[in-house]
Amino acid sequence: MMLEARGIIFAYKGHKVLDAVHADVERGEVVSVVGPNGAGKSTLIKCIAAIHKPQEGAVRIDGKDPLVLSRREVAKQLAYLPQSLLCRFPVSVFETVLSGRRPYFSWRPSRKDVEKVEQIIEALALSPLATRDMDQLSGGQRQKVLLARVLVQDTSYLLLDEPNAGLDLRHQLEILETVAALAREKETGVLMALHDLNLAARFSHRILMIHRGRIIAEGTPFEVITGERIREVYGVEAQVTRSNGHLNVHVLRCAGEDPQTPAHGL
Questions:
Q1: What is the pLDDT of residues 214-236, one digit of tens each?
Q2: Domain that includes residue 184, residue range
Q3: Of 21, 29, 51, 156, whose Cβ has the fewest other Cβ atoms within 10 Å?
Q4: How far apart are CA 215 and CA 188, in angstroms?
């Protein structure tokens, strides 16, 4: 059982953003798509989520073509978390999370729907914020609410577009630890776009490295994230080490710079 994309080609204004890209994620697996800005990470996530319509290629959800399923059926299998969500009118945290249950009710939510929302809000420590409007929250708080919204959707697969973008270190860890626990405990398949190589390595079973619209490497974090590939894709010199079972990336300098240039963390 898996979510898969095959031969995805997407062009925008004549520029090919994705060129015959393949990606898949099994249930219970966390797969991260990494690469520099403009490489095609978010575009791939949006094509699989049907936010963008690719010119070529196909998506399958457990072997089924989502194009022949109703939007409600797809929403029960696949949830999408954008980088941000604009709230054009006042809406509370509780109402925002409850909207994730829309695939399961037509007019009014059932008691079961409300209970699921209450459980997720409590699990993510959002109870003190439940009655507050979304526009009153910090960036980290809003992102946790949006994560709660996709969690109550109760799907087999999650698509996350930069789920930790703009967050401080604590909120980044909280978001990704929640995602990892979901995959581990509920066997949810997670495909997410990430910038931070250290976090991608720590929380992912597999890594897809994308560069100029193509997947150039796929495998475990230790197989994919190497100093040579970081130099090729990001244009920087980096030291890749192992510590306590984790991979660590330490950026040294831009490729071609004087070796005496002070090192930078990634």
A1: 999 999 999 999 999 999 999 99
A2: 1-77+155-222
A3: 51
A4: 23
